[in-house]
Amino acid sequence: MREITYLEAVREALSQEMRENEDVFMLGEDIGVYGGAFGVSRGMLEEFGSERIRNTPISEAAISGTAVGAALTGMRPVLELQFSDFITIAMDNLVNQAAKIRYMYGGKGSVPMVLRTPSGSGTGAAAQHSQSLEAWVAHVPGLKVVQPSCGSDAKGLLKAAIDDNNPVVFYEHKTLYKTSDHVPEEAYSIPLGKADIKREGTDATIVATAAMVPKALEAASKLAEEGIETEVVDPRTLVPLDKETIVESVKKTGRLLVAHEAVKRGGFGGEIASTIAESEAFDFLDAPIMRLGGAEVPIPYNPNLEKATVPSVEDMIDSVKQMVHYDTWRENHG
Amino acid sequence: MIQIPEHLSKERLLDLYEQMWLIRYFDEKVDEFFAKGMIHGTTHLAVGQEASAVGSCAVLKEEDKITSTHRGHGHCIAKGADINKMMAELFGRETGYCKGKGGSMHIADLDKGNLGANGIVGGGFAIANGAGLTSRMKDLGYVVLCFFGDGASNEGSFHEALNLASIWDLPVVFICENNQYGMSGPVKDMINIEHIASRSGSYGIPGKVVDGNDVFDVMNAVGEAVEHAREGNGPSLVECKTYRWKGHSKSDAKKYRTREEEKEWRDKDPIKRMKEAMLEKEIVTEEEVEEIKQQAKRKIEESVEFSKESPEPDLSTLLTDVYAD
Amino acid sequence: MANEIFMPKLSSTMEEGVILDWFKEEGDEIETGEPIFEIMTDKINIEVESYHDGILLKKYFHKDDTVPVNHVIGFIGEQGEEVPDTPPASDEESSADESSSPEQETAAPAQEPETEVSTEKVRATPAARAAAREKNVSLHNVSGSGPKGRIHKADVLSSGSQGKSTPLAEKMASHHGIDTKNVEGTGAGGKVMKNDINALLAESSENRPENVTESLRGVRKVTAERMADSSSTIPHVTMDFEVDMEQVIRLREALKSSVEKATGQKLSYNEIFVLAVSKALQRHPDINITYDKETITYHNEVNVGVAVAVEENLYVPVLKNTERKSLSMLADELKPLIFNTREGRIDSASMQGGTFTISNLGMFAIDSFTPIINKPQGAILGISRMKEVPVVKEGEVKVSSVTTFSLSFDHRVINGAPAAAFCTTLKNLLEEPYELLV
């Protein structure tokens, strides 16, 4: 199978959906001739024209609300925000309008829109262009939240998001855009709410999201060299959350580490940890649940400082060793 | 004396006249029930502002759409809503527009083109644009009326949305119901220009000021703006000067204004002015208008009975309707 | 009425102790003051002595069991006296019960059976609890391998039925076709350890023994954590300086017999070092400090800790108010202190309150080293061996005995200049030690 980048996979999903469904269109700042802040829509203006690749003024409040209104009246808009940090400016339309309309109206009307936006640190863009605020939107009933960790997932999940009849916030991690993997050429859909076990293991579970997934896989392969078999679970969507897969994994391994790039305090990892504590997996826990999250600081500019704000592969290895109570573990496993 | 457009039939006039009374009786009834504690939460009443809602919606076709505000009962009635379902919603009943989940600020009637009231000041601008965009992209030919108040014109969303509607030539008419106060804030203290309609100049779209208590003046201006939009010429801004007789919401002591001022505006009662114009032109008789008034009153009483008899929503409905399938 | 034996609380931070060894069996006679069992706390290993005369009637816990502070471990009483089958709740709990419901107590006297189930919480993971439920094992009888004695699932599985060998020993034994039941265990309670299997293999064949691994516990674990903490959080600066020891040697020779006469103890260099350090600290109060929670405390008294190695463990007993003590007083105190430490008979109170520490490696072939500060103290003095070297004195090369002293100090709170001044004072005091006697 051919390999393409995460970024190309996102573009391919968008293009295939737009060819398939006339109601689908894109709007966002600089998505036209420029091709989008990260180049996702490059070439799409030429194919689909300016009516469906709608270049907008710098008005996040207006364009997010326009997406809501268009979705409510029968379109399937895909809104691009240049950086997920700008979701603050679109927040009223997302939280007070899109998420609530169906419920407020007693089950009438729906808002089938997708808000695509690049998130996360690692590009030196500093405090206002590097955040991971997914826990905010995951907190709001009525929204769905997707965080793909690789191109093949991104393509299938984006199709599912566009086809979904609800507002979906679709996070694309900036540092993953350049990563490649095998992505089928034909259109396909990955259901929202289905976690993926990226690596199987028996001794500990790491639930990791977005850019933490490749790191968790690296940690798992290093731990395997020392005989510790780590299972890596990627929820892929925070809302809906595939609790079952996570619970089953922890029942098998007895140990849970949750890793996300977002600030640890109030991060979604707390939700996953609580889910386990409340579930039948509790009786299988053989170590306290651990969380790794971003430092409680704005993302700094200096590359070394920036790197130090987010959990590393080494952090994950240390945490897993701590959970398996490594010294005793080594003695018992020779 | 206000001028009645010649093309309006007697039947049409009495229909509009009844809508005005329905709005007034509906809101006065709600006011009374709030005072008695029979309706909870909060509500915002449009008594005294009936003409801007009725006049604006009078020029619309069935397929045209509106977005409304927190003070939205009037828009809803003028766009053809079912009074029973409205009142039942305020009573929080299962038979209400939102099955008791929305209340006063969230009544919507998508089938009738009412995209919903909105509890967020300025929340409707961009949604109206989105609906306008759908009309454009799907070539559906409908126009969207976006109601908002003087206070909302100071929200950033107003400016972003008018600009976007302008550059994309969206079929949206922005209707400012300037009722002189944003909650307690007098418009003269909050805006440093005489007419909010002048702001249209910043976005290169037509702007017009009308007497918001003259239902026909409103009809003429909005009618013109709707045609402008329907022909593909883009959005307009119409400012209706009016006055809300009641406080902002419940428990408003109205310390920010005087009794004299209130009396001045009550004298410009839009319903009375419409009636006088029709009597003056001898289109209708005293008996006929009185009959219309009583008919409206009965409909409101019936809606109250309907609501009282309607069941409370089952607790099992709490968790439904969050997501669409 | 039988008397309770309970887990003593040996320090303010102690929450539980591990029983290392029993010296008595049920039915043995015990005299007041006689050691009954040995325990390990997070700071120390200690023998617990009896407060009563009598017969050891009951032992509720075994070797390696972790027992919460104040929890009843057993009973001493007269032959034939009745004691409960399970350990009763600790004093604190039962007295709380009494005070909270006195009326009930009198209204319903002794109708209910005496069996009381322990309400003490055991530190264990949910998986360990589930395993214990399934295997019908009491967690009170399982020793935990995790932090603070936390019981993990593997601890439960390896306790109970198979019980008498470590998992690793079991694994090695099965690998080599050995039945652990036939192996004499050297571990606690005769538990078969990895080394026992290795010994057996070494005897029987050319099999080479495997490396020994050991998880840190008790004092060693605490020491390891404190060393790492000190070393990683304190910016250490170490200053070495040589001291001509000729005068110290002479001083000791001169005072030896009179000190021995007064105290029965032999005067050693340690006492002279403690005295010199105390005098020097008095003159340099900015070195006699502790630093904790961003606060420096300048101590009026000088309390000098002396590092003592006992097998693999490191202890630092503290001599209090050394600035007010003479050489004979110091000898009288320090000698028994070190002796008791080596015998494992030191209480944790004797290891607290130090303001400065001395680590003397003079008995080894060490010329200098970098001591690690004993937090929260500001400085530590390392003392290396005495050796004869050629020195130039008044233009002549002479042979003299010289020792290198190494002062490590916390550079967050002590600057180089005051530290150097302290070193200079100490060097002068040791090279002209008669001043110490003033």
From TrEMBL, chain A:
One of its GO terms (molecular function) is oxidoreductase activity. It comes from the Bacteria. It holds the Pfam family Transket_pyr. InterPro entries: THDP-binding, Transketo_C/PFOR_II, Transketolase-like_Pyr-bd, Transketolase_C. Its cofactor is thiamine diphosphate. Residues 4-179 form the Transketolase-like pyrimidine-binding domain. Keywords: Oxidoreductase, Pyruvate, Thiamine pyrophosphate. PANTHER family: PYRUVATE DEHYDROGENASE E1 COMPONENT BETA SUBUNIT, PYRUVATE DEHYDROGENASE E1 COMPONENT SUBUNIT BETA. This is Pyruvate dehydrogenase E1 component beta subunit.
From TrEMBL, chain B:
InterPro entries: DH_E1, PDH_E1_Alpha_Subunit, THDP-binding. GO terms for biological process: pyruvate decarboxylation to acetyl-CoA. SUPFAM superfamilies: Thiamin diphosphate-binding fold (THDP-binding). Residues 19-314 form the Dehydrogenase E1 component domain. Its cofactor is thiamine diphosphate. Keywords: Oxidoreductase, Pyruvate, Thiamine pyrophosphate. Residues 292-311 have a biased composition (Basic and acidic residues). The keyword Oxidoreductase applies. It comes from the Bacteria. This is Pyruvate dehydrogenase E1 component alpha subunit. It comes from Salimicrobium halophilum.
From TrEMBL, chain C:
Residues 2-77 form the Lipoyl-binding domain. Its cofactor is (R)-lipoate. One of its GO terms (cellular component) is cytoplasm. InterPro entries: 2-oxoA_DH_lipoyl-BS, 2-oxoacid_DH_actylTfrase, 2-oxoacid_DH_E2_comp, Biotin_lipoyl, CAT-like_dom_sf, E3-bd_dom_sf, PSBD, Single_hybrid_motif. Residues 78-167 are annotated as: Disordered. Residues 123-160, 164-201 form the Peripheral subunit-binding (PSBD) domain. Belongs to the 2-oxoacid dehydrogenase family. PANTHER family: DIHYDROLIPOAMIDE ACETYLTRANSFERASE COMPONENT OF PYRUVATE DEHYDROGENASE COMPLEX, LIPOAMIDE ACYLTRANSFERASE COMPONENT OF BRANCHED-CHAIN ALPHA-KETO ACID DEHYDROGENASE COMPLEX, MITOCHONDRIAL. This is Dihydrolipoamide acetyltransferase component of pyruvate dehydrogenase complex. It comes from Salimicrobium halophilum.
